[in-house]
Amino acid sequence: MKNPYGQSSQALPTSGPLPVNVLLRYGLGQTGAQIFRDTPAALLPVFMTTILGIPAWIAGLAILLPKLWVILCDPLMGAWSDRAAPRRGRTPFLVTGAVLTSVGFYALFSVPEFANSLVSAALVSGIFLLSMTAFSAFSVPYLGIAALLSTDPHERTRILVYRMIFLTAGVLLGVGLAQPAVFWFGGGHAGWHAMGLVFGLICLVTMLGSALGLRPVLAGKAAGQQAPPPLRQQFATLARNRTFRLLLSIQFLQTVGQASSYTAVALVFIYLAGSVELLLPFVLVMSLVGLSVQPLWLTLSRRIGKLPLFVWQVLAWCLVTLSWLWIDFGADTAMTLPVLGEVTLKDGLILVRGALIGVTNAGFVMLLTSLFTDSIYQGETGAGAAMEGSYAGIWSAAEKLAFALGPLIAGITLSAFGFESSRGGIIEQDAGALRGVLVTYSLVPMAFFLASMAFVPALARALRAPPAHAA
User: Fold this and answer.
1) Nearest to 401, CA basis, from 63, 46, 44
2) Taking the CB of residue 338, how many other CB atoms lie within 10 A of it?
3) Apex CA 172: angle with CA 171 and CA 175, to 5°?
4) Phi, psi (5° rounding) for residue 188?
5) pTM for this structure?
6) CB-based contacts of 461: which residues, under 8 Å, 6+ apart?
7) Exposed, middle or buried by CB within 10 Å (0-12, 13-18, 19+), for 363?
8) What phi, psi does 432 have (nearest 5°)?
């Protein structure tokens, strides 16, 4: 038979399917988590450069410093949650993290303007550091739960399909609606403040709802887990897990690329698409198409394997990303679309790109996370000891470091092409700055994704090897 990675294998361990209500309770938390993950990445640099008057490179540095902290915080939070799991479960971490993350989100977009932009940058950076610490308390145990809920690799893919549904809702809200909401609330500082309040409340409801809803499920799982080994031994065990190391490298490179593009996405629609209002239908199309193909990816992953499907999706995403270089094609050709009415062919092709991004992105993100949960079972301890948090802590730290480096790389690229920061709103940019926006959104992320593919052959060999705990 085919195993989840596309190779012939002995029969894999299975467990019964999880009830849908458990999958829904788990997935719900990802909506708020995705809002906190994406919205600051996409909009905090815009808020800092166009409202607080902070130069782009300083804004990138202010975002980088708090995320450097989570390189240490996430693994420690994961190990701490592992030690607490057999006794108290992971719910206290989830609840505390949900509440404080939501408060931090609101505070981020409420920072006032100071005469000295360095003061504003320092205050944003400090709030972001505290918010990231709180988010670590939620996101690290939450990610580890995906591996804990089932021992069946195909069932874990099903878990992550539900997570992807709620993740897509978070993208739709946090990327598609957050920027337009600023304008709906009047723009300027007051518009950003109101957006922060509304979306902070959404984070609270979804993340806290998931934390409380999963409490009885996690209590039963914790009772069957052993205490993890000492901290140093835990991290040594993770370091010897070759499958995990290779997946971590792929995830890190791809997330740097994604974070770079997120930093520029609002600028693309403001300056290159010529209409920030088009961002909402773009993200809506991307989200709905991404949701609609999730059952297909679940079926194909069972038939051809997770890894081959993952590779094809990444390569297809790169082709779509490259096509942004021709964003102005069709600008002089009119056409009529349902709901939107008369638009240009350029606008229509932007929406087509959104659909294609939804098809590919929703697939490879889900499969990469599913492969991550599989790597935990490839390690020396298998599913015996409570080490999901430690694995998730390292995985999450790498992701957050990548999301810190992405805005920094984007900020340096934008500054190198002459992008000008401003106070009080959007200003006109010259042709060089506009090229910088396009390069940041297209060529930079594509380069990181293609580089990540160099690890795939070694990963395929590692997945064919028997689990270390079975050797």
Assistant:
1) 63
2) 5
3) 65
4) 65, -165
5) 0.79
6) none
7) buried
8) -65, -45
> What number is the average pLDDT over the span 328-357?
84
- Token pair recorded at residue 87: 């006794």
Span 20-222+230-470: which CATH code?
Answer: 1.20.1250.20
In this predicted model, what pLDDT tens digit does every residue of 158-185 receive, in sequence order? 999 899 889 888 988 887 788 889 989 8
pLDDT tens, position by position, 362-379: 889 899 999 998 888 876
Contacts of 112 (CB under 8 A, 6+ apart): 120, 189
Written as one letter, the residue type at 276 is V
Comparing 41 with 91, the larger pLDDT belongs to 91
- Residue 82 to residue 389: CA distance in whole angstroms: 5
Alpha helices in 305-387 (DSSP H): 306-322, 345-378
CA distance 442 to 103: 33
Phi then psi for residue 417, to 5 deg, are -90, 5
Cα–Cα distance measured from residue 289 to residue 248, given in angstroms and rounded to the nearest whole number: 28
Distance of CA 247 to the CA centre of its chain: 15
Q: Which residue has the tokens 């939450």?
A: 142
DSSP 129-178: HHHHHHHHHHHHHHHHHHHHS-S-HHHHHHHHHHHHHHHHHHHIIIIIIH
In the block, which residue shows the tokens 């309040």? 197
Lowest mean pLDDT among 6-10, 67-71, 87-91: 6-10
SS3 341: strand
Per-residue pLDDT tens digits for 29-70: 999 999 998 888 778 988 998 888 888 888 888 988 887 888
Kindly provide the b/e burial profile for residues 49-74, where b requires at least 16 CB atoms within 10 angstroms of the residue's own CB.
Answer: bbbbbbbbbbbbbbbbebbebbeebb
